[in-house]
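TA notes, week 10

Several of you asked for a full example with nothing omitted. So below is the full record: structure tokens for the whole chain, then the designed sequence directly under it. When grading your own attempts, check the secondary structure regions first.
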């Protein structure tokens, strides 16, 4: 039986809700720094001048590791091209984990799109020159997953949206090529699959092998093959074109050389919807300080949106792009006195995978002694931007949510599991900070409550253990892990399937059977994919 202090976590001391300084960034923090979230990690892009061509680092950070070992500067190679300008970073989580980045290379005056797959043997960045448009100051990207993705029929895991910036109103979308696991998804013996929609403009054509040593591939934009775009003989039953195909409908068939004649297969067809597509222009030019973020569910249950600040001299303007309608809608401007200058961040909970959406921002222009802000679409007009202060009734809690440092040009913030992560300052203070989000998020919620897939989860810290109380709106499989401050897993509980209602679990000993010592711990609670991270202190 636990001897409980019976206080919700974060209420034990007011400082527990303050910004907490974590590990320092192992590379200089300069203009172009951007953070994103993916695979339960923080990812940062850091363009560094350092004389000559400089370097553009991309580093993962494990916020659950020890505070002196969070950043990993050895796993991922820097982006090629030296120090890039107008950088952006986003994370693809549908089909496979992929980092997507953009940057402008001064050496050859080119804008580039980068990708790094974490689940393959690439072990390097792949890059393509962007010929459709040029990146400028205020460039930003965001990933939108394809809800209709299918590994055989709709092989497009999503899209990367890009606001190029540079005083332009242009807005673009790049279709993410899928089909990485073609060899595992080939029930027909060929690829592309019949009637499939794909985005890969140099697809790997595959078909069934025979005893013949010679094959032939025909690809055409016409069903009668009168306009052939590929006519290739090969010794293996596969072929990847060296030049990109244009978007459109294609027909293809293959043949094997048998008895001194070609033996043809049936005709198959696929639709190619790849590369960059120009979308509706944003109503105002995007300048320095512009930023975009993907959101799902904030404006209606099934809404999919790209949110955008345009920055610059009109830096209070805030827009929503309705993906289904290809239309921009002007929302409430940023709060009076706050402009989206350099260092502005816009982040949502959608990329984290939580079922309860929310939208947060910090504003640039060297904003000091301010809080993060939250956008509440259901509030009355001109009241939708609310300061995030943990509890509207407490001036002291509002103080503890104040940003820990002045927001400089190269500041960046991202939302993780119930936690904001922020790099606010430049090289004289290149630290990562965290602020654990309480349940209300600026709406008067109780400290110590974490959203858990639409329900609440509480932590009660005791003198000799930790107890978690959580609510299940539907039946779910529940697992929980307990970590110490250096990231080691010291406790694990696989509860199994539980019925709807209120449940509790607790620890008073670690995995080795030792009593929990006094100190700080983190609980990671997983309810069929909906996750919560809670902080507890054993006294």
């Amino acid at each position: 039986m636990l001897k409980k202090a019976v206080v919700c976590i974060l209420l034990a001391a007011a400082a527990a809700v303050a910004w907490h300084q974590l590990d320092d960034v192992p590379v200089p923090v300069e203009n172009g720094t951007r953070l994103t979230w993916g695979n339960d990690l923080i990812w940062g892009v850091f363009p560094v001048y350092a004389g000559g061509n400089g370097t553009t680092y991309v580093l993962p950070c494990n916020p659950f590791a020890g505070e002196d070992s969070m950043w990993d500067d050895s796993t991922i190679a820097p982006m090629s091209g030296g120090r890039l300008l107008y950088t952006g970073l986003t994370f693809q989580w549908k089909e496979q984990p992929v980092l997507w980045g953009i940057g402008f290379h001064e050496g050859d005056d080119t804008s580039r799109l980068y990708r790094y797959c974490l689940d393959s043997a690439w072990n390097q960045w792949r890059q393509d020159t962007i010929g459709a448009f040029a990146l400028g100051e205020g460039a930003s990207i965001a990933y939108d997953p394809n809800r209709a993705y299918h590994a055989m029929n709709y092989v497009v895991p999503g899209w990367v949206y890009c606001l190029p910036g540079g005083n332009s109103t242009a807005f673009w979308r790049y279709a993410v090529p899928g089909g990485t696991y073609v060899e595992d998804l080939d029930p027909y013996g060929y690829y592309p699959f019949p009637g499939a929609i794909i985005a890969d403009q140099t697809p790997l054509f595959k078909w069934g092998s025979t005893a013949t040593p010679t094959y032939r591939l025909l690809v055409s934009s016409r069903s009668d093959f009168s306009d052939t775009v590929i006519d290739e003989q090969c010794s293996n039953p596969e072929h990847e074109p060296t030049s990109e195909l244009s978007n459109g409908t294609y027909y293809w068939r293959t043949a094997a050389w048998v008895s001194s004649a070609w033996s043809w297969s049936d005709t198959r067809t696929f639709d190619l919807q790849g590369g960059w597509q120009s979308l509706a222009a944003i109503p105002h030019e995007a300048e320095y300080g512009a930023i975009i973020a993907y959101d799902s569910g904030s404006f209606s249950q099934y809404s999919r949106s790209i949110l955008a600040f345009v920055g610059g001299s009109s830096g209070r303007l805030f827009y929503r792009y309705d993906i289904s309608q290809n239309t921009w809608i002007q929302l409430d401007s940023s709060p009076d006195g706050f402009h989206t200058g350099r260092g502005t961040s816009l982040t949502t909970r959608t990329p984290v995978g939580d079922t309860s959406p929310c939208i947060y921002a910090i504003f640039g222009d060297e904003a000091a002694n301010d809080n993060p802000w939250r956008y509440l679409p259901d509030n009355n007009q001109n009241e939708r931007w609310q300061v995030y202060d943990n509890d509207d009734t407490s001036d002291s809690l509002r103080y503890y949510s104040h940003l820990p440092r002045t927001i400089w040009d190269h500041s960046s913030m991202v939302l993780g599991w119930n936690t904001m992560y922020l790099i606010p300052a430049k090289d004289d203070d290149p630290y990562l900070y965290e602020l654990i989000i309480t349940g209300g998020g600026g709406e008067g919620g109780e400290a110590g409550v974490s959203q858990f897939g639409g329900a609440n989860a509480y932590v009660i810290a005791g003198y000799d253990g930790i107890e978690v109380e959580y609510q299940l709106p539907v039946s779910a499989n529940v697992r929980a892990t307990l970590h110490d401050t250096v990231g080691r897993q010291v406790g694990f509980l696989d509860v199994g399937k539980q019925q709807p209602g209120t449940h509790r679990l607790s620890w008073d000993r670690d995995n080795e059977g030792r009593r929990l010592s006094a100190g700080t711990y983190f609980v990671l609670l997983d309810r069929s994919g909906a996750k919560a991270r809670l902080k507890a202190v054993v006294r």
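The longest strand covers residues 248-258. Use that as a sanity check on your answer.
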